[in-house]
């Protein structure tokens, strides 16, 4: 069985058979050269399996969002073929490393296939929070928290392009949280995205996407290490929540890496009454040989 690229005429079939598939935003633009979308089909062209991946030029990484196989085909080696297809395509685009998330619902077959293809053993990476902000206007800290002396914020569109130049080659933030990253899904929300300044210099940011006015996805939140404290996080998130409430967006989605213990404790403390769901996410990676 050969893996083939998805045709536009088959997109609706994918949505019909693979509910809540990770990386589904790729299906909105099949012609994007950084996307890798492969399907397996039977002789009647019925789709049996799907892989969705993306090449990130910024750090030459291939991200495999999901490998899905229909239930009656899960005892085959279809996951293995789909994963090999994605690896070959991503490597051809320039990827030096592959990365994927392992969710609670990820099939045992997929986990076995990752081991078989020499991926690193999955490790607990981050916790995904879904927060219901509808009732958070009663929290006093949202209105009363102020930034420490020397700190200030600007909304996403308030700065000049020249202010971003020092960030392009800076080494004080991880590449996967780069504020220069181009996230393909949703519309950037300038009302809930801010730059953090200390004495006139950018030292952090929170960037978010508005998805269908139903939920806000925080795509990047980072504060320079020597500037971190809950005295900054609290007023920063307060500004985001105030504006989110005005936009009538009921839910916020964000990930916190488990190695960031202080940040993890902060979210569990200040949002504990509003956490709608938490999901522990493991991750795995594979270094590609030249």
TrEMBL record:
Organism of origin: Lysinibacillus louembei
N-acetyltransferase domain residues: 151-290
Pfam family, one: Acetyltransf_1
Top-rank taxon: Bacteria
Family matches, as Gene3D superfamilies: 3.40.630.30
Protein name per Swiss-Prot or TrEMBL: N-acetyltransferase domain-containing protein
InterPro entries (UniProt xref): Acyl_CoA_acyltransferase (IPR016181), GNAT_dom (IPR000182)
